[in-house]
Design brief:
Order of helices and strands: HEEEEEEEEEEEE
Strand content: 35-45%
Radius of gyration: 20 Å
Helix content: 10-25%
Number of strands: 12
């Protein structure tokens, strides 16, 4: 092979390997009520997931010293969801519940998070949004709420 092609070929090879080693996260657009019941880390607007578009924590609480519960708001998507963090020193089942809407539960390591699906918040002016979360050593059922914001 001619020497003038070796360096460009090597650079191209490094770029291709780098692109396949770090795949770009999947993203699906949503807008308004089409964001309802969707994962805020995957669905969003303008090429940015709702959870990445500078969301803010409206309110927070802790529950039993092992769950940090946040009511999250995305100004980008105008959606709300609950994020619960396991603040214990070992793995627990933790639950995130956007009261009146969605919940999710999973077995998470210390400092790991789980979130509920998101809900478009525009049609509910003055609605009392509440984020609830809990933790357990056993799977958590549908009726268990735990600690809630406001």
């Amino acid at each position: 092979m001619n020497n003038r092609f070796v360096i460009p070929t090597l650079i191209l090879l490094v770029i291709i390997i780098g692109m396949t080693a770090y795949p770009v996260a999947a993203f699906t657009a949503c807008s308004g009520s089409s964001c309802n019941a969707t994962d805020p880390s995957i669905y969003g607007m303008n090429g940015t997931a709702c959870s990445q578009g500078s969301p803010v924590t409206d309110e927070y609480t802790t529950y039993g010293g092992l769950a940090y519960v946040e009511l999250r708001l995305s100004g980008l998507c105008n959606t709300r969801w609950t994020r619960t963090t396991n603040i214990g020193s070992q793995a627990y089942y933790i639950k995130a519940l956007l009261k009146g809407f969605y919940w999710d539960m999973g077995y998470k390591a210390a400092n790991d998070v789980i979130w509920s699906d998101q809900q478009y918040s525009w049609p509910y002016p003055g609605f009392n949004w509440q984020a609830c979360g809990t933790w357990s050593t056993q799977p958590i059922g549908d009726g268990v709420i735990g600690g809630c914001t406001n």
